[in-house]
Amino acid sequence: MSHNTFGHLFRVTTWGESHGPALGCVVDGCPPGIRFTAAEIQSFMDKRKPGQSRFVTQRREDDIVKILSGVMLDEDGVTMTTTGTPISMLIENTDQRSKDYGEIAKRYRPGHADFAYDVKYGIRDYRGGGRSSARETAARVAAGALARKVLPGVTVRAALTQIGIHKINRDNWDWAEVDNNPFFCPDPQMVPVWEEYLDGVRKAGSSIGAVIEVVADNVPAGLGAPIYSKLDQDIASLLMSINAVKGVEIGEGFASAELSGEENADEMRMGNDGKPLFLSNHAGGVLGGISTGQPIVARFAVKPTSSILTERQSIDSDGRNVDVRTKGRHDPCVGIRAAPIGEAMVACALADHFLRDRGQTGRAR
After folding, report:
1. Is-contact 55 330, C-beta < 8 A?
2. Phi, psi of 132 (to 5 degrees)
3. Is the separation of the CB atoms in 335 and 209 below 8 Å?
4. pTM score over 0.85
5. Rounded CA gap, 70 and 88, in Å?
6. 140-196, pLDDT tens digit by residue?
7. For burial by CB atoms within 10 Å, which of 28, 208, 263, 342 has the most?
């Protein structure tokens, strides 16, 4: 199984399975001389880890990151400095329950990658889905935490804007609220609505989808390149690679089809500081595949978790018709924990393009 690596200069390879002893990543191309602490990496891991509320899977994983290579420890015993060599990070699995999946060893769960993996490889890891499990994304969050250290002054944040049919009121958007609730919700008035709604979904043994918005502020103008290395192209690709993601849009995205040319074009004026000033940001901070200096705005849609308690029709590997009900511990809305994953993927895309731009133009933006 190939294709476990993404990026050009900031290259990330992830490894490991949901029910293996551990998983992790190797980050190659990280510049030397970057200082960070394990606690800084861990702070992002803690946002993603399971079992933090009744609205996510109750699998208990501490997701403690161990940094194995590519750094030198400072005299304070805490701060590390990158050496420019590959940085390997490991996250142990401690609460896997493979016995929960015994009944579906030969049965294909509808909506999961079971059938597709079996068709392609002739073998699949039925214990939690193996590499197709969202458990793999823990390694991406670790890589994304490191990517942030490559980007001077850039802030990457994500928030849920929709669960099921319930959308936030964007007039209530407050970034300070995102870490004050279990949904990464920027609208405090929507939190109790989502709580009641998801309690019903969870008690019914069902699941529901979500939409996540990622915003990167202070991204310098000039990152990305036409025609086959567009910044928004790579952001969309990495977001689309996240488990259960079925759609990605940049800026106005699909809504731009309803706008006129006059409405959609982001007009410009010179600001009082002598720098270009955009009067809107329908483009989501990217024009011609190159960043404009405006906030990068991307959204992605996550489908409902396919592991549900309701029996669904399927087949098994012997070609027999079967009914499948998935046991185990699963997220009623996997989109909730996708917020820090989306942040990580955008951070990795930006770090890669930052290094590529510096290598091509020689400029420090």
Report:
1. no
2. -80, -5
3. yes
4. yes
5. 7
6. 999 999 999 999 999 999 999 999 999 999 999 999 999 999 999 999 999 999 999
7. 342
